[in-house]
Fold each of these.
Amino acid sequence: MTYIDLGEPATPSSLHPDFEQFFAAENRRLVRSLTLMCGDQELAADCVADAFERACVRWVTVSRLDDPCGWVRRVAINRLRDAHRTLVRRDALFARLDLDAEQVCGTVPRDEDVLAVVAALSDQQRAVVALHYLDDVPLEDVASILGLSEGTVRYHLHHARKRLRTLYEASIQSAEQ
């Protein structure tokens, strides 16, 4: 097998020298304005970073726009809205599981903890929970996707919520000890 030396990996500045200047000029201002929008500087910085990453990949096109900063701002705001929707879905799930808001806010589960709890569900329950609660798919569409009746989907959701509530409460108790 023959290996070809591709040299050093390309960096954004070596691919698009003017992108680095654009980033340096606009990043702080965008993070500041998104922080004011959402009240969370870390979330704002993540959204802006994602937007700049997308701009870098499309820099040849984005740099030719009348307002490249406006494009990055729009992408960052869309990412912020996506993050907000995710939080709303999470809160709705906790409400559906009859979890106390103080209990949820007092012990913010790590992604690994949530994955471990959801992994304890059956395959059908996991699929139904993921489609309905995480992807916001209506029950009739979940039934169609999984080839189940709507009643069966409701059955799996009911039992998944009961199981998740039990597992979540157990994980909170073990974390407090």
Note: The CA atoms of residues 2 and 8 lie 18 Å apart.
Amino acid sequence: MKRTKTKSKALKAETKARQKQEAALKKRREILTGIWDKTPIGITENHFKHKSLSFGSCNIAQGCVHGCPFCYVTSTFTKPLIKLFQQRGVSDPRAGWGQYLFLRRWDEEHFLKSLAKAELMQIPAGHDGNRAVMFCTTTDPYPVAAGAVEECKAARQLLRYALELIRDRSTLRVRIQTRSPLATEDFDLFKSFGDRLVFGMSIPTLDMKLSHAYEPHAPNVKLRLAALQKAKEAGLNVYVAMAPTYPECNDEDIRTTLLEFRNLDLVTIFHEPINVRGYNVKRIIDSAKDAEASIIPNTSVFDSPVKTMLYGLEQLLAVQRIATELGIADKLKLWPDESLISKSAFMANRQESLKAKYPGIRLTPEQRQWLGKADEQAYQQHLSWVHGWWAKISDWPGVPPQQGWTTPKLPAESPFTVTLPEGLK
């Protein structure tokens, strides 16, 4: 009886938190809108490295109303691009991320030319994304904002135009990635692609409080999971981007999320932690304050490259370890950031580990010699693990598994762990 009451109390608390987040979503925000007439909608080659998401991108808008503070799209904004934003009334497009949505204009002739070029494009080695065009890479293809209702409707129509032309006039594949359950309304179109289309949701965690703290204006994570379940029931090929996981996402949180994913028989589970780019750490702090989140984000892990590497690597290894325990490691495609191969940060973490384990130790020459070799060996093993994940080409329905690739070996303990041999202590 006591257990039932506890469960009921927890359910009520979760429902209350969900209602609070939904109310925040419905609260009108002033979204600056208009037409981005500089560049019409088209397919362009993207410059992803190691992610194996797609070789091409199709972005229907400049800006994203979800405005996830950890997003690093704004780190790519050049000075000329910033000036174009300023001409449209956005004084600081980096700080104001999430407060504007400029739809790209539709020019069918331009789109078809870009489609024909993409059809013939030779994909460079290391950029293999299964000949897929991704919707979208710098915005969400299904924006939802009370302050931009008409623009959100128009965005969906633009998306349908582009998808229909890709389906009918090319052999290219399509990857849809969104945070919006509104995508369920286009499942009929998605199904018409057969195995040429995969549909995915970005779901870093299923913890409502964490989600509210880190992405207060994005749709409810439980609704996103439900959309994935509906997609599976509709016969679509589905995947998930478990990205980015937050510093508070411990083993219990990761296991809870992966257990839900295991039930969906996903094509791929992509994963990455938060990558520090531009202003995103400051935005995380400011956004949580503005949203009155019940959890204050732990941004101390971003205080230095050394701490950031420790957080990022621990998250990636935890996802691989837990996925292995759950029998779904073959679904993984991890995204180790290039910052994780910094040798100086790696060695600094080894040094910190040594000091913590052997406080006050003064190394003898023999210990220094042994440690130098052990450090280098650990770093080379770490590089092998990173490059192993970089080399993986993500799975695609109907395509044979990648030949010659094996899952990078999971280390038995943290690569930063240092244990001196008994005879050298």
Note: Residues 365-390 form the longest helix (26 residues).
Amino acid sequence: MSKKWFPKKAEKVTLRGSTRFDECLLEVIFYVLEQVLGETAAKFIVEYMIFKSLQEETRISFGEDAKTFSNALQGILGAGCMPIEKLIVEHLCTRLGVKFEEKTGYTFSDYIKELKKKSESTT
């Protein structure tokens, strides 16, 4: 996942064991953050969430448990993170060819878990 915005320090650690879904999710996250907040803020947030998650694990696993990302984003943006999380889910659905259906009581993590299952069943 050699992306110009991806932190070099984290690349070796996070790539180990990551799936295509994890990489797709991270690309969508950066794309949405860049569109909404600009490139500088998007880079800052992605780097922050990567290093925040690396404190807890040896690799990033947002596809397995998106709570880490959601908590990091909420820590930075407060309640403003909710529309951004929805945009991320909508763009991820589009990228995966899945129709987005808003569900009452679903969290960002719930959507990501469901999309990961759907993507694994099609590969």
Note: The helical segments are 8-15, 20-37, 39-56, 67-77, 81-96, 108-122.
Amino acid sequence: MEFAKTVQHWTDDSWLPSASRSFLLELNPSSRQESRDEMRILLLITFGSAGTLARYALQGLVQEWTSPTFPYGTIVVNLAGCFLLGGIGQYALNHISFPAEWRIAVTVGFFGAFTTFSTFGWETIHMLEEGEWMRATLYVALSLVGGLALLRWGMYLGDHV
């Protein structure tokens, strides 16, 4: 399955492994499809592990270089993740025949493990609970506006490289 030919919009309908579809809809799944499902899971594990380690390293490095009073590491990881996903995703969409298994490995596996939106929410709530409204507002604004801007910039570069 080629990415540029199969995806006409931004959603990904390949999330449900065919083994689950087979369980729900078919009685005899093909061994070739089972092999593709196994490859997809292996790629998710591999890329998810790499994304987790990359997040841990970058977030820790940035936080060590900066003040521990603001979650700089989290914001750098989230903004970098938005930029890279925008650039890589758009480039692959326009220039590469990208098999579904690899697309899922990169987007869901690596970037799903790399970005830290749940950590962002946790840190924001704690700032609000501590009465740090200005810091929380700055954090939310930078994450949202910066993330969208960098995602768009990455998409632009993906189109023009």
Note: The chain has one domain: 16-160.
